[in-house]
Amino acid sequence: MQIYLPIAEVSVNAFLLLGMGGMVGILSGMFGVGGGFLMTPLLFFIGIPPAVAVATEANQIVASSFSGVLAHLRRKTVDLRMGTVLLTGGLVGAAFGVVIFNHLKSLGQVDLLVKLCYVVFLGVIGSLMFVESLNALRKSRNNVPPSRKKHNWIHGLPFKMRFRVSGLYISVIPPLIVGVFVGILSAIMGVGGGFIMVPAMIYLLGMPTKVVVGTSLFQIIFVTAFTTLLHATTNYTVDIALAVLLLIGGVIGAQIGTRLGTYLKAEQLRILLALLVILVCAKLALDLLIQPTELFSIGASEGH
């Protein structure tokens, strides 16, 4: 069933969009990521313009993350205090990110920048997560107790706050910086930032894995909602028809993903996520490197 998307100005299969939304929703519930790092490139692949994909995907992330958070709140695996600190930084970062996005859009460079950002970030993060997850899996099989690293430089920073659910007493500066960085990424790349947020919360802040997923989703809801609002009012690139179809699939998928996540070990979840990130990065890099079949069609369409 083909449906015409007015803002994207393309026709796509409605069931394909529902399926994509559902798949990304499952990832959201399992890994604590908004799923935008996967969905936005998928939208590029089916012909949605990058500017529309980024703005609309931020909208879909809100719904799938909200659905996932409800399940985690019932289990009491959300650190609301930590989430609020991350959120404060995230809102500042998102506002700054939209300013950068608008400037690049006026220069006509936004499509290339978005794709290059994806290749760089997904490549680096996917590789680091994959190596770390393999080491963690090897240690758990050999019954080696996980070593809790003490990051002295973080513990020495001022403005400390107690995060009871995470069992931490650390400075609010590192979570604020992580939040700002993720907010900028959310605005430029149309992602919730979970693929950076989750590793940062585990390895940088030292949060327990079971609390990380729910807390990450809590923060993602508000940052991506704010990003969507800014994109809709400044760029007019939010496609409601596309957003609704992705939303329906995402909400259903997030509930399934949250249940599936309970059956897998934390190390297995991280290794699966790392492999997904690397695969998407490879496909995007290939698309940027391979010469298009119709070299002159791009120039012709831009001339109109």
Automatic annotation (TrEMBL):
<feature type="transmembrane region" description="Helical">
    <location>
        <begin position="112"/>
        <end position="131"/>
    </location>
</feature>
<feature type="transmembrane region" description="Helical">
    <location>
        <begin position="37"/>
        <end position="59"/>
    </location>
</feature>
<feature type="transmembrane region" description="Helical">
    <location>
        <begin position="80"/>
        <end position="100"/>
    </location>
</feature>
<dbReference type="GO" id="GO:0005886">
    <property type="term" value="C:plasma membrane"/>
</dbReference>
<feature type="transmembrane region" description="Helical">
    <location>
        <begin position="236"/>
        <end position="257"/>
    </location>
</feature>
<keyword id="KW-0812">Transmembrane</keyword>
<comment type="similarity">
    <text>Belongs to the 4-toluene sulfonate uptake permease (TSUP) (TC 2.A.102) family.</text>
</comment>
<dbReference type="Pfam" id="PF01925">
    <property type="entry name" value="TauE"/>
</dbReference>
<dbReference type="InterPro" id="IPR002781">
    <property type="entry name" value="TM_pro_TauE-like"/>
</dbReference>
<keyword id="KW-1003">Cell membrane</keyword>
<feature type="transmembrane region" description="Helical">
    <location>
        <begin position="211"/>
        <end position="230"/>
    </location>
</feature>
<feature type="transmembrane region" description="Helical">
    <location>
        <begin position="12"/>
        <end position="31"/>
    </location>
</feature>
<protein>
    <recommendedName>
        <fullName>Probable membrane transporter protein</fullName>
    </recommendedName>
</protein>
<dbReference type="InterPro" id="IPR051598">
    <property type="entry name" value="TSUP/Inactive_protease-like"/>
</dbReference>
<feature type="transmembrane region" description="Helical">
    <location>
        <begin position="176"/>
        <end position="204"/>
    </location>
</feature>
<keyword id="KW-0472">Membrane</keyword>
<feature type="transmembrane region" description="Helical">
    <location>
        <begin position="269"/>
        <end position="286"/>
    </location>
</feature>
<keyword id="KW-1133">Transmembrane helix</keyword>
